From TrEMBL:
Region named Disordered: 97-123
Source superkingdom: Bacteria
InterPro entries registered for this protein in UniProt: DUF3127
Any single Pfam family the record assigns to this protein: DUF3127
Protein's name in the database: DUF3127 domain-containing protein
Compositional bias per record (Acidic residues), positions renumbered to this chain: 113-123
Length: 123
C-alpha cells in the first residue's frame, strides 16, 4: 500500500542504529510533519538504511510531500505499525515550478507578408 501526504517538516529526530539478532547493522531516521488539512495532523515517518539520505538538506519548516507505505507486524500478540517513507519531494519547489507559457511580447508577432511575385504557390 503506497500513499502520499503534503505537510510542513516540524522535526527531524535523532538518528538511531543498532545490530539485529542476525548480526546485521541497521539505522533509521524518524521525522515529523504537520499536514495542511482543515484539521492538521502530526505524523511521524521512518526512513531506513540508505533512504536516510532523503532528508538531507531539508530544513525544519520546509513544505514537503512524503510518499510512504504502511506496514504492521505482530510481536508476542501485540501489533506494531510503521509508516515508512520511500520518497520526499520539496512541495514548495514543485508548486512554483509549474509550466506556465512564456510572457507574450511584440517580437512574437510574425511579419506582414510582402508582395512575393516570384512565389510559385497557387494561393
Amino acid at each position: 500500500m503506497s500513499m502520499q501526504v503534503k505537510g510542513t517538516l516540524l522535526q527531524i529526530l535523532k538518528l538511531e542504529s543498532g545490530v539485529s539478532k542476525a548480526g546485521k547493522e541497521w539505522k533509521k531516521q524518524d521525522f515529523v510533519i504537520e499536514t495542511n488539512e482543515q484539521f492538521p495532523k502530526k505524523v511521524c515517518f521512518t526512513l531506513f538504511g540508505d533512504k536516510i539520505s532523503l532528508i538531507d538538506g531539508i530544513s525544519e519548516g520546509t513544505e514537503i510531500e512524503v510518499f510512504f507505505s504502511l506496514e504492521s507486524r505482530d510481536f508476542n500478540g501485540k501489533w506494531y505499525h510503521n509508516i515508512n517513507a520511500w520518497k520526499i519531494e520539496n512541495a514548495g519547489a514543485a508548486s512554483s515550478a509549474r509550466n506556465f507559457p512564456p510572457e507574450f511580447t511584440s517580437g512574437d508577432i510574425p511579419p506582414e507578408p510582402g508582395d512575393d511575385s516570384g512565389n510559385d504557390l497557387p494561393f
